[in-house]
Amino acid sequence: MACPQCDLLHRVDEISVDSTARCARCGTVLFTPRSGAIERLVALAIASLVLMVVALTFPFLEMSAQGFSSHASVLDTITAFAGGFMAPLSLAIAGFIVFLPVLRLCAMIYALWPLIFDRPPAPGATAAFRLASNLKPWSMAEIFMIGVAVALVKMVGMATIVFGPAFWAFGFLVVFVTMIDVMMCERTIWRILDTR
Amino acid sequence: MTARAAGLVGCRHCGSVWPSDAATCDLCGGPLSSRQPNSLQRVWAWWWAGAIFYVPANLYPMLRTDLMGRESADTILGGVVELVHHHAYFVAAVVFFASIMIPMGKFAAIAYLAIVIRRGGQIQSHSLHLLHEVVEFIGRWSMIDVFVVAVLSALVHLSFAVNINPGLAAICFALSVVFTMLSALSFDPRIIYDAAEVRE
Predict the structure, then answer these.
(1) B32 and chain A in contact, CB less than 8 A
(2) Residues B65, B137: one domain?
(3) ipTM value
(4) Cystine design at B176: which of A57, A163, B54, B134 (Cβ 3.0–4.6 Å)?
């Protein structure tokens, strides 16, 4: 195989589970197979999808100050720019925090599900897994959550904030997606997809 | 030995190698190219697009706050100054880093990479490679500011007392972040090691 970062050729034999293979020149992690990783990835992806549904249907944040109160759902946040010429930004935000993460998780589940049961990959599994890999930089759920945190700190002292169920759902979703990113070794999965 | 020197082409998705005339990877279906064609030109094109939008992103207001009928507008830098006035030093630091230091640093880092690769001289391939990975990883985090504006505008609608609306800078800033992400993604890290090999 060739290192995807520096193009150095390597001869790859069997890589034992729980060990890590790095590129001899640039140190990029080539393979890091872990036992039970695929089962865990699929479980985390399904859990994340469920949390996304909760996050979209329940109240997100509520604030009150001096007798006035207002609330916002995740959808309100997306449509914050909907009025006027900034409407495309609403679409982009919807993509970054909802559609692309959901698409990525679905593609991942579709490609990995049959592997759990030692079945051959589903038709189009390679295309689905490649899509999931390409979407990675563009799913920004975790960045959204940090943005929420910054917004809340800006309002501390000026208003009382109540966290809705959607807030906690989105918070856990971020944790799960981060765990997926950490555990995922794409090239190991490509090898498994290839050999089944 | 590199795949190119061996007359092969390596897939950037799955790492498998193919004869140099193959166009798509048989294993994962991804497009193959020994080196991203015109990598540096693409980097510069997206770089300029990002830099151009970064100017209005700083000049126009990010947030328009309507307090009891009086409207005030905050630019990115103005927002940081306000946070410092409210003694929210930690958040001020986070916003300062995410919306000012990171974008500036990213422009500088990408330009530095592209210039060093083109011009030559001694190349520290490992540190350049690290720099590229950091830029690629950190770029998306600049989006924080856009999300802050979205949350504040959605949440703060207290009848006539306080209303927050997004300003023109939000969309310019978002475009600038997307363009610089594309610029970093267009950079093919393999050319760093090519350039280092040429000098050896």
Answers:
(1) no
(2) yes
(3) 0.88
(4) B54
